[in-house]
Amino acid sequence: MLAECLAGTRVLDLTQYIPGPFATQWLADLGAEVVKVEPPAGDPMRTMGPVDADGTTSFYKLANRNKVVVRLDLKTEPGKAGLTKLLAAADVLVEAYRPGVLDRLGFSADELARINPRLIHCSLSGYGQTGPHAPVAGHDLTYVALTGGLFASGIAGRPVMTFPPLADHAGAMLAVQGVLAALLRRGRTGKGARLDISLSEAALSWMGGVLTAAHRGGEARREHDIINGGAAFYRIYRTGDGRFVALGAIEEKFWRGFCVAVGREEWIHRQFEPMPQNELIAELEALFLTRTRDDWAALLCPADCCFEPVLEPAEAAHHPQWKERDLIHVGKDKDDVAEVLLPVFLDGARAHDRRPFKEDDVQAVLATWR
């Protein structure tokens, strides 16, 4: 089972907001025991945005299920002592402080190595631990802005921000990969590790194609290339009922299948007209306005032409593919959230259902971390 992969692994989570909590939650899905340490006032994500009747946001609940949460004031000696005991018993530390903060709190790299030489310490920050931007504050939008990817994304007139946040989730995934690699190395060598993972660099790692085009003298012109809206066969179209559909008929056989299904065989030879294919795009826009989204889905989904309706969030959980895979769980316990389980199937089995986070104290945790 998936939960056997990291069974017995203890993860200490000193992160807030989105990236670190999601990373440690995925480690919990793999079987790790995760203890999240928060300041006395709690993770700011608890109250950032609309709160539920219990005073906590759904975003916080979604990112912190499967965890035990303890509160420590790391500016006090009792708080530092409590963290020291947890560190001594932990396998992995994931923290998201700005560079230098842990040092000022008394937990430098040398001190962490003294407390626990086998500790895998993952620092998850905006720009990394070194470089002129290391101390600069940021959030997902500003991280992606520095990669070139934000400029390359969106409509012709302007860049458009991604949602959900790209760098935050890419960074969470990269942190999990780094921790798993370090655990494998420790299994061979017994050595701990220091991982320096940057949210902005996680996004940057996806930008090779964008940067290569620029290096070769190209220009990132939105809605001018195949997969950024310049091709008629790879676009989002509005339908007659004000909803949307997605057409991704890149291969010739799929484009041919689309043209035949809609009765426009004369379009088949136009697939590779110069881009942007504004004239052909306009013709497809007019066509899609003649029927509703669901009418187009009834016609084109069976045609096997890389077409799908653009589902609204309230519809996604009911799609037969996601229902069959049983990854979306809606309102199944007191948290009343719609969560997506870790989409990894091991020997045909998916991740275990997650449980709501539980508040506890350090002594209770240490009693089990002996």
From TrEMBL:
Keyword Cytoplasm recorded: no
InterPro entries: CoA-transferase_III, CoA-Trfase_fam_III, CoA-Trfase_III_dom3_sf, CoA-Trfase_III_dom_1_sf
The keyword Transferase is assigned to this record: yes
A Pfam family the protein falls into: CoA_transf_3
Keywords assigned: Transferase
SUPFAM superfamilies for this protein: CoA-transferase family III (CaiB/BaiF) (SSF89796)
Superkingdom of origin organism: Bacteria
UniProt cross-references to Gene3D superfamilies, sorted A to Z: Crotonobetainyl-coa:carnitine coa-transferase, domain 1 (3.40.50.10540), formyl-coa transferase, domain 3 (3.30.1540.10)
GO molecular function, one term: transferase activity
UniProt-recorded name of the protein: Predicted acyl-CoA transferase/carnitine dehydratase
Organism per entry: Magnetospirillum gryphiswaldense (strain DSM 6361 / JCM 21280 / NBRC 15271 / MSR-1)
Lineage start: Bacteria, Pseudomonadati, Pseudomonadota, Alphaproteobacteria, Rhodospirillales
